[in-house]
C-alpha cells in the first residue's frame, strides 16, 4: 500500500474516529461473540455490525437461536441491540457496539409471510431471501436454475417492506434478485457481495446488477475474502489493494453511494467450518485451503485493523465525505429509508 | 351413451371383471379419509368409498397423500409442518384400512396388487403428491418409502425447493436438490409422476431420471387446452422413455364446451394414434365426494360421474374398437408394467 504522509495519516485517523463504521456482514457465531471480541471491535473503530442471529431452518429453531443471541447481547456491557438509525447513533455516543439482528435466509418463516412479524418483533431488521439454494421464495446463487420469485416470494418481499425489514440479496440468484429489486419499494442490500468483473466467481455481482442496485438506491458490502477479491485470490491470497480495487470499481461504475463494508469475517471461523459448508455448497471456492495457508483474507482485515481501509481510501484520493459514506453512511442511508 | 350390441356388452363386462383395473390417481385419502378421521369418524373407506369402487370394478387405487399445500398440512396438523402432516395423514389412512382389512389392503409391490385382486380386496398404493414433506433431506424420502410411498410427484402447483409447479409464475426446472431427489427416487424404485410439473421441469425429469416416468392424470393438450394437459411433444418424450399417462376425467381437462364421456374417449384415440395404445392408462381423479376442502365437489362427465360408473369407460373402449389386450392394458396393465420396471430399480440402502 502506498505510504501516507504524516498529515494524511492524521487525516485518516480523524475520519476513522468520526465515522460510523458499519460492517454489514459479521460472521461471528454465538460461541465466539464475547466481551473480548466486542473489545476488539471497539479498538478497530467499529460502530455497528450485522449478525446472523436468526439462523436455523425452521421457525422454532430460528427463534430459539435468536433468543440465545438476545440473551448474550443483553449480557454484554458494551453491546446494544439496535432497531433504528437513532439507536445506532446513540450506541456510538455511548461507546457501545450497535448490533443489527438478521438472517441470511427466509425459509425459516415456513412459507407463511405472516410469520415475518415474529422475526420483526424479535428484532430482525435485515433478512436474506434465499441461501444459495432454491427455496419456496426464489432461487439461490448456487442453483442450476435461475428463476424468478414465486408468488409467495413476491408476498414475502411486500411483507418485508410493510414491516420495514431490509431485503438482503447476498445469496440470491440473478433473476430472483433482479425481481426483488424491482418489487421492493425500498432500497435493498447485497450485504456481502463483490464485483464479478474483478473476480469471476459465482458469488460476485455482474456490472448489470450493480447498476440495478444503484438504481434501486441500495448498497453492497465488499467482502474481505481472498477468493472473492481477485481472480488469483483462490491460490495466492489477497492484499488491501485488492480490497480497495473492489471499492474503486463500484465507485467508478455507479458512484460512491452504493458501496459499503460487508467483510464476511468473524471471530473464530475455522477451516473445518468452511469445509463443512463446502460439502453442502460445493460451488463455493476452497476457502478452507486459504485459511490453512493464512491467505484467507488481506492480513489487516483479518486482524481487524480496519483503519487500513480508511488509510487506503485516503491514499486513493477519496474525500472525507466519500470515505465516511463507504465506511457506514451508505448503509445507514439504506437502513434509514427502510426502517423509518 | 354409446350403444353396444349384446355381445359387445358381454365382452365389456367380462373384460372389466377380468382386468386389473387400476385408478392411477385418487384423492380419497387426503381429502376425505384424513379429515373425517380427524373428526372422529371410523371406517370412512368402507362406508363412503369401497362400495363405489367395488361397483366400478376397481382393483387398485393410487391414493395420494398431499401435504405440499399449506392449507392441507395445516388442516391435518396443528402446525404447518408438511413432513409431520404427511406422516399423520398416512397413519390415519392406514388405520382406516386396518378397520376394514377384509375388503381393503395397502399394497407396496406388484405381487401385493395381484394378490389383492385374487383375494377380492381393493389394494391402495400410496402416492406422495408433491415433495415438500421431503423437506431438505433425502432421509425423509427414504422413510416415506419404508412406509409404502411407491409413487411421487415432485411439486404440486406452486413452488418448493425441488421445482416450480404448473401454476407458479416463474417456470423453472429442477433445483440441484431436485436432481438429487430424482436420483434417489430412481434408486428407491419410486415412480415419478410429472402431472403437475411445468414444461421445463418436465423435460428436466426426463433427462435426469434413469427410470420411466408417468403422468398419472393428464390428457392431450391438442384436444383440450388446459395447463395440466400434455403437448404432443411431451407425450412423445414421455412415452419414448417408456412412460404411461393416465386419462383424467375432470371435465375441464376433457373439453371446455362438451366434457362428455365420448370426448374423453377421443383423448384415448388421439394418444393411441400419436404414440400407441400401450402408453395409455386410467387416472380419473374423481372429485365428486369432495366437500370439506378448498375444492368443490366436481362430478365427472355424464355416465362417469364417479368411480362406480367406470364400467362405462370400458364399454366406450369396446365401442371404439379396441382389442381385449389393448383394453386390459388401458385399464391397468400398462401402468403395472411401468411400476414393475421402476420397482425393480430398488436398491438396498
Class by alpha and beta content of chain B: alpha/beta
Beta-strand percentage range of chain A: 5-15%
- Portion of residues in helices of chain B? 40-55%
What gross morphology of chain A would you assign? globular
| Helicity of chain A, as a percent range | 40-55%
User: Could you tell me which chain pair has the largest interface and how many residues each side has?
Assistant: A-B, 24 and 22 residues
Radius of gyration of chain B, CA atoms, in whole angstroms: 19 Å
**% residues in beta strands of chain B:** 5-15%
The biggest sheet of chain A amounts to: 6 strands, parallel
Q: How many E strands of chain A?
A: 9
Average pLDDT of chain B: 94
Give the oligomer, counting copies of the same chain as homo and different chains as hetero: heterodimer
Structural class of chain A: alpha/beta
- Main β-sheet of chain B, in a few words? 6 strands, parallel
Span of the ends, CA to CA of chain A = 40 Å
What is the H/E order of chain B? HEHHEHHEHEHEHEHEHEHHEHH
- Give start-end ranges of low-pLDDT stretches of chain A: none
Number of helices of chain A: 15
Envelope shape of chain B: globular
Characterization of this structure:
The complex is a heterodimer of chains A (340) and B (349). Chain A has 340 residues and is α/β, with parallel strands linked by helices. Chain A has 15 helices and nine strands. In chain B, helix 4 (70-76) crosses helix 5. Chain B starts with 5 loop residues before the first helix and ends in a 6-residue tail after the last helix. Chains A and B meet through helix 6 of A and helix 8 of B.
